[in-house]
Amino acid sequence: THLAEVADWSGPGRTSDGHRVDILANVQDGAGARAARSTAADGVGLFRTELSFLDRDVEPTVDEQASIYAEVLTAFEGTKVVVRTLDAGSDKPLRFANHADEANPALGVRGIRIAEGNRGILHRQLDAIAAAAASTDSSPWVMAPMIATSAEAQAFAADVRERGLTPGVMIEVPAAALLADRILDHVDFLSIGTNDLAQYTMAADRMSADLAALTDPWQPAVLTLVAHAAKAGAAVNKPVGVCGEAAADPLLACVLVGFGVTSLSAASAAVAGVGAKLGTVTLEQCMAAAEAVLSTSSPAEAREVAAGLLG
Ligand code: PEP
Ligand code: MG
């Protein structure tokens, strides 16, 4: 049964024929990271740093940020950890970073866009991540949310490399998925955020229960963009992960692997289920399912086709 598989899974992530895929955890602070460590997760694929600061009026100092980041790095010592810079705005506004009066916050100054008018806030956070890395002797990867253009990726990567860290970007705006090949000229990895990618592709608020059918990560249009970005990464041999909710669905996770995605990052509660399911299918099966879903016209059809090929 599904439950028995979950109980049995002990990592590392791989298909039944041995194709390695890192199964990672999404975390938001040290306590969450320590809890995630008790799963068999291969590391952290998304550390949502902004969630530590939702109640703050004033930007936390570099030292305070560094100690919060170090807690997560310590919990996952010796494994891969991907730290995301502040994704402030929209559903996660920060009083010290965002404008209070935007008409359309999801389309406003959110994520990396804050750095356009306030580079210092990004630089101080990167200094804090670098300090946390040094104090814990670890080498986190660092990625920016809400990248829409190649120029944004280039500027971010320069700031990250200057501090000896490894830069990547999230692919969660359709423009970035479409031009993933050009963005990859500047960064070392991509991480696809399917929650926002679905929201912006389908023009449907991810928070709206009424629109949940539109923001379903099985939407063929969303999967087509994911496949496109994964292919761009494979072409230049750079890692492409998925860290949105899509990676928490065991069946969809196998489809993502078939697209060429190299890591899957999900809420800790979903890690074992994804790892267990992946261990029951071959890479060839994943690739067949990936190809098949791209010819479907609805989430229901995509699910059905994938279930037929992946068991
Ligand atoms: C996403 O958009 O899919 C994502 C992982 O980021 P968040 O959910 O934090 O916006
Ligand atoms: Mg997002």
TrEMBL record:
GO molecular function, one term: phosphoenolpyruvate-protein phosphotransferase activity
UniProt keyword Cytoplasm, yes or no: yes
Alphabetical UniProt keywords: Cytoplasm, Kinase, Magnesium, Metal-binding, Phosphotransferase system, Sugar transport, Transferase, Transport
Domain of life: Bacteria
Domain PEP-utilising enzyme C-terminal: 13-276
Cofactor: Mg(2+)
Enzyme's top EC category: transferase
Swiss-Prot/TrEMBL catalytic activity: L-histidyl-[protein] + phosphoenolpyruvate = N(pros)-phospho-L-histidyl-[protein] + pyruvate
Localization annotation: Cytoplasm
Major place of residence: cytoplasm
EC number, as in UniProt: 2.7.3.9
Role this protein plays: General (non sugar-specific) component of the phosphoenolpyruvate-dependent sugar phosphotransferase system (sugar PTS). This major carbohydrate active-transport system catalyzes the phosphorylation of incoming sugar substrates concomitantly with their translocation across the cell membrane. Enzyme I transfers the phosphoryl group from phosphoenolpyruvate (PEP) to the phosphoryl carrier protein (HPr).
Family: Belongs to the PEP-utilizing enzyme family.
Name by which UniProt lists this protein: Phosphoenolpyruvate-protein phosphotransferase
Organism (species): Rhodococcoides corynebacterioides
Span of the entire protein shown here: 254 to 564 of 564
